[in-house]
Amino acid sequence: MLKQNLKKIVSKYLDNSLLLSGGLDSSVLCYLMRPKLSIVTSLGPNSQDLKYAKSIAKKYSQNHIECVVDFKDIVRIVPNIVKTFKTFDPLEIRNSSVIFFGMREAKYHGYDGIVTGDGADELFAGYNYLQRYFADLRKLQEILIELWKIMRFSSRKIGETLGITVNTPYLENPLYDLATSIDINVKVGEYKSKKCGKFILRKAFEKELGPTVWRNKMALEEGSGFEEISNKFGDLIDHEEFEKESKIVALDNVIVRDKEHLYYYRIYKSFFGCPAKQSCDSLRCLFCSSCLSYPKYCYTCGAFPPV
User: Fold this and answer.
1) In 10 A of CB 298, how many CB atoms?
2) Structural domain span for residue 273
3) What is the DSSP string of 232-243?
4) Are 172 and 5 in contact, with CB atoms under 8 Å apart?
5) Radius of gyration (C-alpha) of the chain in whole angstroms
6) Distance between CA 137 and CA 145 in Å, rounded?
7) Alpha-carbon distance 97 to 145, whole Å?
8) How confident is the model at residue 282 (pLDDT cuts 50, 70, 90)?
9) Is pLDDT of 306 > 90?
10) Suppose 300 and one of 7, 130, 223, 290 were both cysteines; which one would form an S-S bond, judging by CB atoms 3.0 to 4.6 Å apart?
11) How many domains does the chain have?
């Protein structure tokens, strides 16, 4: 039923482009769509996503673009990401930058719609941090239910800024209702003596995609190579400058964790001022004084937990 539901949903978007990382979720979509255009984003020419996406696209995509960017490209678009998401959270900025480049490429090539694999990790227990709960599936189910309440995806907001419609098959019904109602036991299974999430999704497409379905989960910033920008932004600020400015920033009731964090906060403050001066009817983050929309994570600075 999972395969049939997903195939029916995807059939509505055959004229869309596809963000293809070469991981399980986007590879399944590529197989079902046979897209006219697939796009992978990479910092430099050697990322894991480039390799895996190329392999899948060769089989199932009509045209495939490798959007390879360098650090200077990222520096240019970071202010736009900070402003769009009102954040200086390094993880949010890195991951959203990956998505931005891919979606901008699709728009450049004349596409007004793009399909993403958003939601599969949340629905089918795909994130690596969830592995700590694999020995207690009842607890895992509780964690997932909480995750479903607060999950959000940067692709949608980026799509709005670029004028491209984002379609997310995993989050559409009837698949969403199926995924949130099926037994937790089918989401976690064992492969080569190791437990893994998204088991039901992997098994559903194992025949079609082969070893690809068992690719280990890689965070977006890791697979694309964008995790490297942390050190690169750090190189733009020397140690003495960081020590001095960190003390000044502390007067804003903001704690910056490293040089990359400080770089993003400078941009954030230029747009929005310091978070402590913003009116607030909720709890404030202990690390940046911004208003918290969710008590377990600060979407402004990335603190976890923020209180």
Assistant:
1) 27
2) 251-307
3) HHHTTS-HHHHH
4) no
5) 20
6) 12
7) 28
8) confident
9) no
10) 290
11) 2
The per-residue pLDDT for 34 is 98
Orientation of helix 259-272 relative to helix 71-85, angle to 10°: 50
Pair (45, 182) in one structural domain = yes
166 with 202, same domain? yes
Output the pLDDT for position 294.
Answer: 87
How many angstroms separate the CA atoms of 157 and 284, rounded? 24
Using an 8 Å Cβ cutoff, are 285 and 253 in contact?
no
What is the spatial distance between Cα 187 and Cα 297, in angstroms, rounded to a whole number?
Answer: 25
Cβ-contact 46, 26 below 8 angstroms: no
Question: Is residue 32 assigned to a domain?
Answer: yes
* 128 and 169 assigned to the same domain: yes
CB contact at 8 A, 254 and 260: no
Token pair belonging to 219: 């965070």
Q: Are residues 177 and 272 in the same domain?
A: no
For residue 196, the SS3 value is strand
In terms of phi and psi (left: phi > 0; alpha: psi -120 to 50; beta: otherwise), the region of 275 is alpha
- The Cα–Cα gap between 68 and 53 comes to 13
pLDDT digits (tens, 9 = 90+) for 68-123: 999 999 999 999 999 999 999 999 999 999 999 999 999 999 999 999 999 999 99
Q: CB neighbours (10 Å) of residue 238?
A: 11
Place of tokens 């600020």: 237
> How far apart (Å, rounded) are the C-alpha atoms in residues 152 and 170?
13
The residue with tokens 């986007």 is: 26
Helix 71-85 with 154-162: angle, nearest 10 deg: 100
